[in-house]
Amino acid sequence: MTARVLVVGGYGAIGRAVCATLAADGADVAVAGRSAERAEELAKELAGHGHRTMGLRLDVADREDAERAVGAVVDAWGGIDVLINGASVLVTVPAEEFGPQEWAQTLATNLSGAFWISQAAGRAMIAAGNGGRIVHLSSVRGALGARRGFTAYGASKAGVNLLVRQLAAEWGRHGITVNAVSPGFVRTDFVAEASRDDQFLRTVTARTPLGRTAEVQEVADAVCYLASERAAFVTGQVLYVDGGVSSSQ
């Protein structure tokens, strides 16, 4: 795979697997996130594959920051072919207790941030005239309610699901595909508290037709498929990697 890829949230568990898979396939990978140190550290690890890498600090909730990060990739490598956005905030508070600060923070990163980084990458892709791939990490919670206080998170991911369809409809004429991957429960640091709750895990696996939680690499493989030429005619789609949860609840 010869592509210039920006992975936002690239040093998280899923993002790290995505970056490693892309680098192993021959892509140039820019790792971005709120910690420049962690992004640069992973970029150095990936450089061992022999392809170009870089680490960038990026807060997708800041529109100017999104434009700056995309601009850095374009300036360094002459363009951007693929954007993968895994930046996300999760706050679990009962709906009746949810405060304005938590609500605003979640939507600013998960939904507004998804648009700002898509807009920045989309502009660069349109200007270059070579098409491109945009893939967002959504969640099964964007389609299904839960009892664990996912009010803002679920609403933001539902917004992401429609955002990819809207951008796909608008940017298809430019050869840009826009899709999302919606995982079920994946045991990562992002959901560390829930991962330590044995009763919760038993409930999750019992409600999942395949009877287990997702592996990080399984989600990464779905992302990398949508980012590849193999998915050239796939756009506006939300691919559920959830063991059948969304089909059975």
From TrEMBL:
Q: Name one GO molecular function term.
A: quinone binding
Ketoreductase domain spans which residues? 3-184
**CDD domains from the UniProt entry:** SDR_c
Biological process (GO) annotations held by this record are: fatty acid biosynthetic process
Q: Which PROSITE patterns match?
A: ADH_SHORT (PS00061)
Q: Which keywords belong to this entry? A: Oxidoreductase
Task: Write down the InterPro entries for this protein, in alphabetical order.
Answer: KR_dom, NAD(P)-bd_dom_sf, Sc_DH/Rdtase_CS, SDR_fam
PANTHER family associated with the record? 3-OXOACYL-[ACYL-CARRIER-PROTEIN] REDUCTASE, SHORT-CHAIN DEHYDROGENASES/REDUCTASES FAMILY MEMBER
What family is it from? Answer: Belongs to the short-chain dehydrogenases/reductases (SDR) family.
| UniProt protein name | Gluconate 5-dehydrogenase
Q: Which organism is it from?
A: Kitasatospora viridis
